[in-house]
Amino acid sequence: MPVGKRIYLKRQLPDPKIVEQYAKLPAANVADCMERGCAMHPRVKLLSSPTGEMAGPAFTVHTRAGDNLAIYAALRFCSPGDVIVIADEGDDTRSLIGEVMMSWLRDVKKIAGIVIDGPIRDIDNLSQWKLPIYATSTTPGGPYKEGPGEVNVPVSCGNVSVNPGDVILGDADGVICIPRQDAPAILPKAQKFHQADEAKAISFSKGTADLSWVDQTLKEKGFDIIDDIYRP
């Protein structure tokens, strides 16, 4: 869809208590409860040094490739606790944001984090920040400020559809998007899965895990188990 010139000031937002609970869970455990279709492409990776998970409602931005005028609009209209999610139409030649704009977002707006499907700059300082910053890469090349661009519209970031107000969860593994309307139902499943996963990790480390299901599944799938060396 072509980039327009629209700025929506209102969003349907998730329950803050639900967002708070998601912040206690690893992104991988939640993703495993969502049919493994919610994770952004690995090109969108953590470039800063936060101490915990990033969780918050999506404040979406759709920019023209290599242009950050709409991101400046986001600086004006985003709210504390938001995760700004920026779609850059696949451009990887110009940074969209650097330390100056990030300082406003961190210190004035107090956002929960930022996710950019495109490059940033000033990485020497930003890499040390506690603010969660996800991007694809870095480049000293700067952006245009001409537009067009849109704020709080559906976007595709890291090959995942994100709607304004969706719950964005990120950690060192990467970023996932939890649809706002599904977040309440997914949360208890993810919490239960996380508890079971911790117990599983302990049993694996002690060598007490039951792997009999592997033998059964290999048999059902028609694998041949050959008690010999490979011979061409």
UniProtKB/TrEMBL annotation:
The keyword Transferase applies. Substrate binds at G98, E99, V100, M101, R121. Keywords: Magnesium, Metal-binding, Methyltransferase, Transferase. GO terms for biological process: methylation. It catalyses: oxaloacetate + H(+) = pyruvate + CO2; 4-hydroxy-4-methyl-2-oxoglutarate = 2 pyruvate. One of its GO terms (molecular function) is methyltransferase activity. Its cofactor is a divalent metal cation; Mg(2+). InterPro entries: RraA/RraA-like, RraA/RraA-like_sf. Its EC number is 4.1.1.112, 4.1.3.17. Mg(2+) binds at D122. Signal peptide: none annotated. The keyword Metal-binding applies. It holds the Pfam family RraA-like. NCBIfam families: PRK06201.1. Belongs to the class II aldolase/RraA-like family. Homotrimer. Catalyzes the aldol cleavage of 4-hydroxy-4-methyl-2-oxoglutarate (HMG) into 2 molecules of pyruvate. Also contains a secondary oxaloacetate (OAA) decarboxylase activity due to the common pyruvate enolate transition state formed following C-C bond cleavage in the retro-aldol and decarboxylation reactions. This is Putative 4-hydroxy-4-methyl-2-oxoglutarate aldolase. It comes from Lactobacillus corticis.
